[in-house]
Amino acid sequence: MLADLEIPVRFLNGLVTVGFFFHLYRVYKKTQRRFYLYWGIGFLLYGLNILMRIGEGPSFSQWLAAFFLLGGFISMIGGIADLVNRISLLYVVLILPIALLVLLVSPFPEVMLVERIGWVISILPFLIIFLSFLLIQINFASSIDLLLVGWGLLLLTNIALAFNAMEVYFVDVMAIFAKIVIFVGMIKPSFSLLVDDLKEYLIAGNPTAYVSEANGGVSLISTGVDRSAVFDWIVDRVRDNSIKGVRTILISTYDLISVNDLSSRMIEDKVYFVRMIAGGRSAKKIFEENIMQVDDDLNILELLFTDVVTYSNERKLNCDIILYSISSLIHNHGWRRMYSFLLSNLTQFKSSRVRLLLFFIPETHEDESEVKRFEAVADNVVTL
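Below the sequence we write its predicted structure tokens.
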């Protein structure tokens, strides 16, 4: 009697798999992360394969279903390559058609040929994807346990199916459960940020919400000399950014904010910290670590801005650069030089996903016209 469940359970398995395409496509439209598009197409083809296998015996539809499955897995593996920015991973995709080609030209009887092709399609793609995620977890130190559990279950289930060690209807039941686990792990906002190698870029915590709109521009934060209000505002901004997956870079001029200040507020793991001090020129590559020093040089500061904007645009990641404070740079370099510097960088910020937040302390400026000039340049002025 349980055998009668085979067709309805397989039909449900196919519908669940195809259904993932529509949600993943919506996530792709929201995040513009190509991984979701590739995997959406992969699940669509995978689901069509399952639906077309409802029936008995080899037929044209069964062979077509096999090619759908092959195309689906190629799309998924391509998605993984795009996710971690490792295009070389695409060469792994060639294993699948090469293995099938070798089988097709081999002098096997037709029944044995179909059986061995089934083994390749049923086991090899699952093994490749499972091992890929295992390597990603090791190399990126990222928690993707749900992905590993889900693909591990699919791998074991299909091995059992290939060797007739599990009832067919139960294979579909286990496959549905495994795909739901994969789906839950895949739509977490933190998973879409796996592409970022933290040793080369930024620290941002574990996001729980998406921010898809561009956020570029320049804001002026007008504050008094009391630093407690400044710290409270920065801490709230950094934590809010961490929740939304927005990268935060805090530039402290002349050690007005220290690493100890960040540690005392428990945000040091959610922000990329740059000390801008005289003689702070560092031989390290920008974004090599989450704490770095740069010289008190506006040319280096502009290079830092450009690198962040370029990286943010390429990865479609929103980012905040918090500079504390522009007042200290004005006092050291002169208002004309800083005003010209800011004007020359306006365009790149307004056309990007990076928002520059400049802390301005009016009480330290004797000439009120200086304050008005910089307020006029900003998109908005926030008074603390």
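Residues 2-191 form one domain.
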